[in-house]
Fold this protein.
Amino acid sequence: MKVKNILKLTGISMALMLAGVARINAATTNLVQNISFALTCYEQGSTNHPSTNVTTIAVNKFRLTTKDIIGEIGLATSNRFSGKARLVLVTDTASSNSVSTVEVRDGTNASVDVSSFFTIGEGFGVRSLYSNSATGLSTGVRYHNLRLVETNSAASLNVRGFAVTTRISFKCFNNIVRVDTVDADVAGTSVDTNGIAGVVNGSLNISGDDVKIEK
Amino acid sequence: MLLVGICAALLPLMIGTRNQAASGPVAGGAIAADTSMQKTPSIQHLGNMSGRAPGSTGTNVIESTSPADNSADAANEMDVAARIAELERLGMTDESNSLLMIESDFDSREPRIQEAAVAAAVQFGSRDAIPALQYVYLQFDDPEQKLNIQKAIGLLELPSMGEAGGLAAQSVDTGR
């Protein structure tokens, strides 16, 4: 009985959702996920000769997080993002080809599409899968190589590493929404805003499963 | 607008909840309230699916088997997902009281929330979080959680990129 009620509610809710969609012109249903960097950057430091027989060469270490990446993008795009700006991966859930954009979202300001600065690729991997052909829903985990390149006129980052991508899926507006949560240990190279090259290591995460209707 | 709100409220029923199909943490299955909706009026939030923290690798099945059990599970997952979303938001702010709210979840017994809190502290980027992280490091026995906290402390101890730019001559590692 309960199951029947749930099915009824589901049917009603689907109808309501479709009606809701019809009322919103030119809106898309987007999956919005946070992109998060937590990296350590190592750059060549200064060479000194503190005494006659001694030479020291230093390495400068600093942390490189999402706010820094957003700041670099702000420099490159002449945008002054606030400290609350977020770097997000936006996927149109109605799109069948899973094309995503990378955006900086800063409060109520218009989103800035920064996709052109990013290249995200997936290398060889293996996966587990649970798939139901009746519902079209699937879940699973992929273990794979991941590469991310972020290049703009102010700085660049080129990392790759081992990634675990967890997929879940659910239905929304008759579309099957696939949510990939990425957790990667990465390493690579960087060039900072002063043009200094470095090596980096740390983590990269793409997480969150907010589904929103957006104009 | 109202219709979409109703949809959001009903979405857990449509989604059902998931049973753990493989080893690893359960991903959960619920909607979370989205606080960002208030900040972005042009965006209507429909809900989200899970409360997994970054790094969670559970494999989950999205068919409902027991609606009664699932509703309680969904409610719990809703709370977890909402808190994780809030922590992610707090980590990307620059207000000092945000750090206090982040720190309050450093010792959460829900591992996904605890992990999200530590990650949020790193993104927040204040060394003020280090003492609280050092304290909770001693409270946990789980090696993975300890390592996660240790990494966060290590990152926060480093200068930020902005600070490093102003300290170009400073030698952090002199090879000794």
Q: What stands out?
A: Chain B touches chain A through 76 residues (CB under 8 Å). The radius of gyration of chain B is 19 Å.
